[in-house]
Design a protein that fits this description.
alpha+beta; Rossmann fold; four-stranded antiparallel sheet; about 350 residues; single chain; Dna Ligase, domain 1
């Protein structure tokens, strides 16, 4: 989607990925190599004006090595902070963002002590490599601490208080090389089994929007950030608690392809290449559903007015994000009717 967004701007993309038949390789030249392959990194970097990433588990050392040959945005410091939940929480607190109570855990004894201080239920998460619900478990009874510790692999982790939130929301925004910023509306998200299922722009939350943007600007300034990022929050009443951030374009912003004047993908390319940021204003009303494990027929989606199907060219398997559908309309009632048709396809 980044590569496709680049073509109208005369930006050409080349990728490096260890995988075979990656989604990006369908639309852009690809180098197949490990992220930390020094020769491949040098080839990519010396052939590029700027480097970026869309996956936060790229090794930080690879980003630093590539930066010897070409600018890397977002900065490797953002990548490093996003890869370790402890560093991430410390960053959030440093910029004044509220977070749930937490404790660092590197042993069963520390887990027991954390549960005694924080209480239960609580969520135990590995500090590194967790996404889509992987590497985490809810502890509802302190007596189950041993099983939880074994479940996460007995690796350095973080214990967080379980937040009885009203909604999970995210803010997607961008910061240009000149420091200019732009933000999309807060998005409400629905997860199931730890995987994002539905995202839709929130309405009537100006105070929360302003607070989220304040947090994001502080985070961006602290990191000297360039590019698109997303911050996920727990909304509790009129408060926002920082959960995690992603230094990249984000699944909760995929609706912007049809639902905003500038998609998050175009916005990211504008930011990292030094172009002026585009407008993040809404185009009508939108909602997005991920396609997990299977996809409906393209003909069925095409029969729904205002429905847009995006398939990623991935082989189906349970729990895998294979694409998404965005429904778009000029008014709320029309969107609601179209959304019912979309969700009927997902429930088949």
């Amino acid at each position: 989607m980044l590569a496709l967004a680049g073509y109208p701007l005369d930006i050409r993309v080349r990728t490096l990925d260890p995988g075979e038949d990656t989604p990006a390789s369908q639309v852009a030249p690809a180098i197949r190599a490990a992220f930390d392959d020094s020769g491949a990194l040098k080839t990519l970097a010396t052939d590029s004006d700027v480097l970026t990433f869309e996956f936060e588990n790229v090794p930080v050392q690879a980003a630093l090595a590539a930066a010897r040959y070409a600018p890397v945005f977002p900065p490797p410091a953002a990548l490093e902070a996003a890869q370790d939940r402890a560093a991430e929480k410390a960053l959030f607190e440093r910029v004044g963002m509220a977070v749930p109570p937490y404790a660092l855990v590197s042993s069963l004894e520390e887990l027991d002590a954390g549960l005694e201080r924080i209480g239960s239920p609580a969520v135990l998460k590995t500090r590194r490599l967790g996404y889509d619900g992987k590497g985490q478990t809810v502890i509802r009874d302190p007596g189950l601490a041993t099983a939880a510790w074994q479940m996460v692999g007995e690796v350095p982790s973080i214990l967080e208080a379980f937040v009885p939130f009203d909604a999970e929301v995210s803010l997607v925004g961008a910061r240009g090389r000149d420091g200019d910023t732009s933000f999309y509306p807060l998005v409400e998200n629905e997860h199931r089994d730890g995987i994002l299922r539905i995202s839709r722009p929130a309405e009537g939350v100006p105070a929360l929007q302003a607070r989220a943007e304040t947090y994001a600007r502080a985070l961006m300034a602290e990191l000297d950030y360039v590019g698109v990022l997303a911050i996920e929050f727990f909304r509790t009443g009129e408060d926002l608690l920082g959960n995690e951030f992603a230094p990249r374009v984000h699944n909760t912003g995929h609706w912007t392809i049809e639902g905003a004047e500038t998609s998050q993908f175009e916005q990211h390319l504008r930011a990292v290449t030094g172009l002026a940021l585009g407008s993040s204003a809404l185009v009508g009303y939108s909602a997005m559903a991920n396609l997990i494990g299977r996809v409906p027929s393209a003909a069925a989606v095409a029969a729904i007015p205002g429905a847009h199907l995006h398939l990623y060219g991935k082989a189906p398997r349970p729990g895998r994000k294979l694409g998404h559908i965005t429904a778009q309309a000029d008014d709320r009632p029309t969107l609601a009717a179209r959304w019912l048709q979309v969700t009927a396809l997902l429930d088949d």
